[in-house]
Design goal:
The protein is of the alpha/beta class. It has 17 helices and 14 strands.
């Protein structure tokens, strides 16, 4: 049995958080002792397993804000993690055999050199490639976009942050990536790291996608279900997720094919009113739905939430809207949407997504998935040949997606059943929670097997501390 500490910056609702939660649950099932440490855990905006006692979560509240006037996000994220690391390395803190770190690598040299512990780092995607929004794989186009979006001051600000990310990541004893796509991008953009990350696909808790008797009488579930044929999109309300693609394709098929006039679209996802990007994305989608395409819509949040999100008065249509915005859906609502016989397709809109757990969720529940033909979904979804298909991979163009939607809507029952069987089989065999937990367990054991880290402070650790101190001085002067 290993004593394992997970370090994750913000334990909210998202794909990275889902992986952390499921990995921790899986390792607990194997008999290991697992604690999760985070700098932010809002019990009104988190996965249920982190607040119902199934996982032990330590919320170490930092003295630093998330941003200053909407800026310095990454710098303050580093400082918040360093504060968390100081807590973990304090004399009275528990001791662990190994640390599992993801998203931010700042703490790794400190955990190794001062804590004398081995560290496994899980790379969802390099932060340096996300600083200017969604990732663009073409290096020339990406460089041009970065020049347009980032001025000289921003590039000066980002340079030490990017260097720090690469240097601290390099100190990890074992490096994992969530897909072959991420592993390749990692190698291309961290040239000083000679190792190729081992791929451990995110896994899902199969039992969590089985409807329960309680869900039948759940008022939140009743509020979202309908007998109308339904398309769903499950993503955070962020611009880079490109949920507008789902709206555009949906509007086109409704306009071009009169037989789809009863079709509805449910846009569900995590929504945090503290984040400007979330707010702007939600209202831009509402404008797209109501003003450009004149579709009826409604916006709802779970009534069971102890702290419901406040939405300003809108011109909504509570009864049978064409588009339903579902903010911060519950586990029961997600499962109900994915398993409802009325759900005929799932639209996954991000391009160059690092992995994308939502397409796997759709396949596990037997829902035909339409996703962009780039990034992680290329590894999870089978598009060709048609007799092995588990979903569709298409370029992110509304007309192309509308054509694919016509295929999905027009599927016969026999064809739909065969695809359902194939999709479920693939999801269970390749992307089950146990397979992911075993892969992470192997990495943790590999790290522990390397023995104790030398007790001396290295030159590079001193360099890291010096850089952090300099940045602190520059910020607070």
């Amino acid at each position: 049995m290993l004593k394992i500490a997970f370090i994750h910056p913000d334990l909210g609702i998202g794909g990275a958080e889902r992986l952390v939660v499921d990995a921790a649950l899986g390792l607990q099932d194997f008999g290991h002792k697992v604690d999760i440490y985070t700098s932010h855990h809002d019990t009104n905006h988190c996965f249920e397993e982190t607040k119902d006692g199934r996982l032990k979560v330590h919320n170490v509240v930092p003295p630093f804000p998330r941003a200053i006037n909407g800026k310095f996000h990454i710098l303050l994220a580093h400082l918040r993690q360093l504060h968390l690391t100081t807590y973990l390395l304090s004399p009275g803190a528990p001791r662990y055999d190994v640390f599992f770190v993801d998203q931010l690598s700042t703490c790794i040299p400190l955990l190794r050199s001062i804590g004398h512990a081995r560290v496994v780092f899980y790379c969802h995607f390099p932060d340096k490639l996300l600083a200017n929004g969604e990732f663009i794989e073409d290096p020339v186009v990406r460089a041009e976009r970065n020049l347009l979006k980032g001025g000289l001051l921003k590039r000066i600000y980002r340079y030490p942050m990017d260097w720090l990310e690469e240097f601290t990541t390099r100190q990890a004893d074992v490096i994992l990536a969530n897909s072959k796509f991420t592993g390749r991008v990692f190698k291309d953009n961290f040239p000083s790291i000679q190792r190729t990350p081992e791929v451990v696909y995110p896994g899902i808790n199969i039992a969590a996608y089985e409807a329960t008797e309680d869900s039948v009488t759940d008022s939140d579930v009743a509020a979202i279900l309908s007998d109308r044929p339904t398309l769903i999109s499950l993503n955070r309300f962020e611009k880079k997720k490109n949920v507008a693609l789902a709206v555009e394709a949906f509007a086109r098929i409704r306009t071009q094919d009169p037989s789809t006039s009863n079709l509805r679209l449910v846009l569900g996802g995590g929504y945090d009113p503290r984040l400007e990007d979330n707010m702007l994305t939600l209202y831009s989608l509402i404008d797209l739905v109501s003003k450009k395409h004149t579709l009826t819509y409604n916006v709802i949040t779970p009534s069971s939430s102890p702290k419901a999100v406040k939405i300003p008065p809108l011109n909504t249509t509570p009864e049978n809207p064409a588009v339903l915005f579902l903010l911060n859906f519950t586990t029961a609502q997600r499962t109900a949407l994915l398993t409802s016989p009325s759900t005929i397709g799932l639209l996954y809109t991000p391009a160059n997504e690092h992995f994308g757990i939502v397409p796997v969720e759709g396949m596990l529940c037997g829902v035909p998935v339409l996703a962009c033909d780039s990034g992680g979904p290329v590894e999870s979804i089978v598009d060709k040949p048609a007799d092995e298909r588990t979903g569709w991979l298409r370029a992110p163009d509304p007309e192309i997606w509308a054509e694919a939607l016509r295929e999905i809507v027009g599927m016969g029952e026999e064809e739909r059943v065969k695809m359902r069987v194939r999709a479920k089989k693939r999801a269970r065999e390749l992307f089950g929670m146990e397979a992911m937990a075993r892969g992470i367990e192997d990495a943790l054991k590999e790290a522990v097997g390397m023995g104790k880290v030398r007790s001396r402070l290295t030159f590079w650790l001193l360099v890291t501390l010096g850089i952090v101190g300099l940045v602190l001085a520059l910020i607070w002067v």
